[in-house]
Amino acid sequence: MQSKIEDFSVELEAYEACKSKPKSFELYEEYSQRDIVETIQIRKEAYEKADLKAREELEKEAKIEVENFHIWLESVKKLAPFAAHYYSISLKSLLLGLPIGVQVAQLFYVVLEKLGIS
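^ thats the sequence. predicted structure below, dont judge the formating
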């Protein structure tokens, strides 16, 4: 039985091997000037090691980061509020270091692509 960390590592490797990454990942990398994979790994480790109080603080930080990213998308990238919302909210679980965030972000990307917004 694989551990959660091994599962997450496999997921990240699959993401890195993927030729097209969700637009939200590219935009977040531009916004933060950091590699999304590194960001996910750092935040995942911090979240796993944190006690309840520290997790609450990490969750607040992630919420603020998502809000700031949303504002940046609207003001700098000139995205419609609807698109900016979905691009930013799709990253929230990733910013908490939760592996399911990769699938969530990809799902949001597919939906936006189908709507002709991506």
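The chain has a mean pLDDT of 78.
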